[in-house]
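Aim 2, interim progress: modelling of the 1,3-dihydroxyacetonephosphate-bound target.
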Amino acid sequence: MHEKTIVNPWPRVLPPEPATSQKLALGPIVPMLRAAEVASLEGRHAAVGAFNINFYSQAEGILEGLRRAEAPGILQASRGANKFQGGPEKIAKMAAEAIKDSKHPLPVCLHLDHGDDATAIECLGAGFGSVMIDVSKLDYDANISAVREIVNLAHPRGISVEAELGELSGVEEDIKAEKSTYADPRKVAGFFEKSGADALAIAYGTSHGPSKGAGVGKLAIRIVDESYREMGANGLNFEHFLVSHGSSTVPQKLVDEINSFGGQIKSAQGIPMEKIEAAIKAGIRKVNIDTDLRLAITATFRRYFAENPGIERGSPNLAGIKKVLDEKPATIDPRDCLGHIDKELMRSSPRGSDIEEIMGLVKARVASHVEYLCRAFGCAGLAEKTEGHSLEEMAASYSRQ
Ligand code: G3H
Ligand code: 13P
Ligand code: ZN
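Predicted structure of the complex, ligand included:
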């Protein structure tokens, strides 16, 4: 086998010695992203998957996929997810419960996705190991100041901060942008240094949602490449990481399955896996996936009702899911279908309830797609290479910087 011996081509920062080999339940994000960086420098290019969660069985499925791939992983909750579940503490409790119930043995971080400052502050004391401040609509200096404020509150707690440079297009519940604006690679190192952010989402042509359209043909992997080189030249690469949002592959098989069972998803187009792989090779260390799991869940729901006619009779929970599927053929947002179900049930194991069977199928579908993605992202097997730092140890290391 061809062995590469480079460990760090960049001069300044070397990875710190592992403080402990302990593997923790909900922990920090930096050690897992650093494990991906070290693997990449050794020639096994890797990024960690960050998967959006809204309800228990989705989280459980993600954990099962991570376990099968022996991958560290990120469970991330958007502002929409926080609203759906009733706030960061409820989300954190749901994630912790899924970890406990499945006796998940590998490193997991809970991250706030596309947060604002108020939600980020709420997350700081709630069990999140990382928060994103998405103020990329502001100009460069105002973006830096807004991020710096949260960094000053987060780092003393060992919590890391993700920011965004450039703007992604796409429409999600809390994110609306008509056009994307690419990130400027020459500004990346300065952004890290001035804002104190640990991770930076750089806009390079990906977009949120299932219809990535023309942007896919204009993906600018060179933006990742140039940004990462600039980081390396400034010795930033072991503590600072690039993030790819809007990275779902939108598998055509899932779209066809949904449409064959009454759904109406039009102009679906994802990022081809080889482009994600190229972006990882160029320096991406965290890859965000929400839409693919929404599709897997919607396909599961639609197939279940098609294959079990009348199963919803006598079950208000199932009947409510079916009603939304019938009335909204274009929806792929599971929160539409699950909004009527008691929130306690939505954040704990469905065992013994009328949704146990359908949620078991959701878990299995989500698990197999997450396992596939982790293998493609190169993070399979990285769990054992992830240092088991606690948030307290992270806080101590931030205070030494
Ligand atoms: O990037 C955004 C995620 O897809 C979250 O979407 O805000 O609708 O939960 P959401
Ligand atoms: P997708 O819509 O491509 O899954 O992107 C998700 C995302 O970027 C979450 O922050
Ligand atoms: Zn995003």
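The mean pLDDT is 91. The two ends are 39 Å apart (CA to CA).
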